[in-house]
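Possible regression after last week's pipeline update?

I re-ran a chain I had predicted before the update to compare outputs. Posting the input and the new output here so someone can diff against the archived version. Not blocking, just want to make sure nothing changed silently.
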Amino acid sequence: MSYVSVFTLSVLMLMGFIYLHTFSYMAQQTDSTIESEINGLKESYRHDGIPGLTQLIANRVSPESVGSVILVLVDPRLNVVVGNLERWPNVPGTPDGWLNFKLDQKQPGGETPRWARARRFRLAEGFFLLVGRDLHDLEMSRKAIARTLTWALVIAAVMALVGGLAITRRLLSRIEMINQTSHEIINGDLARRIPTGSTGDDFDQLSTNLNQMLDRIEELMEGVRRISDNIAHDLRTPLARLRNHLDELKSDFKNADDAELVEQAIQEADGLLATFNALLRIARIESERQPDYLVDVDLSQVIRDAADLYEPLAEEKSQTLEVAVPGTQALVQGDRGLLSQVVANILDNAVKYTPPEGTIRVNLSNGPLSVSLMIADSGSGIAVGEREKVFQRFYRLESSRSSPGNGLGLSLVAAVVSLHHAKIRLEDNRPGLRVVIDFPKRHG
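New output (post-update):
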């Protein structure tokens, strides 16, 4: 609409200039024609006087009608001597003798009276001469020009609207294409790229630059992931050997204190092995974009099994574990082991951070398009600014890192959720945290 408004205003100004300039030119031509007529009558008056001028006017006009030329000669009492007007126009004139007046006579064909423009002169012996032109043709031309320019303005506005809509639609389609690709990349498809055309315009250049930037980012991220995976893989084997050696040495120590120190070293080694195994598992999950081993899994049964596993742990802390699942199957396409790990990781955090006498609720709703899993606790919750960060590897809410854990539990959850094309969000349970995962429903 801004484009249409500016374009229409520009055309309006141009049309106005053309109209004023053209009409002014036509009016000047009319005055020039009257001046030429006056010069001819002056010449006749100098040679033949009033009689000759009267005869010339009588030969050129008819008193019964008004043509394009207006000629009137009156005596000192303003009585018409000869001419094609019934009486002298009673209108004031300009200092140089120009008059604009309305013709009183009925026009040929019963037309309504028209306007005229003339110039008056005082002659010898008190006679007056009026020389002018009927402005009907000029008025018709002015109206025709106005109609033409008006239609031209309307057509220009319509063309501007159509052109504006076409340009806007093309621009928005290109922008929407970039936005859609960006959303797919944000959702985890780092291999996605913005389509480019063959026009080489600014959008193609922008798309090319963005694609090159994405290639570089993916290359750097892949390098970092590859290094971390290689470190985890290379260190896992010597750590396993070290753990086995420590286990063998434990039986050789007779002193209880020495045996306890070895046991602590074994536990530390087990923790490191668990961390490296989690890193490798996350890397494997993130590298599988379109797995072909997914099968129909009943989430209801997965939740029941996980609840049976964590219910004793919740009872030890005097916590209440409430589970509500539908009586029918809630089928999703996925990996049962990975889905069980997701539920277990979230329940483990809920039990860990819910205080004694607290409540943990697990709810599964079977909707028409999705299966929604909700696990809520009454613990301390997570601040809004921290909710996206907890899905990062090794990120922990405790800056001191004094409590058990490696900060990979929710990272694994996020990787599995992305693998299953689901959506996860963290909400305030007031008090506590509510984790909601929406799985696309498997229709069978």
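Follow-up from reviewer: compared with the archived run. The mean pLDDT is 80. Marking as no regression found.
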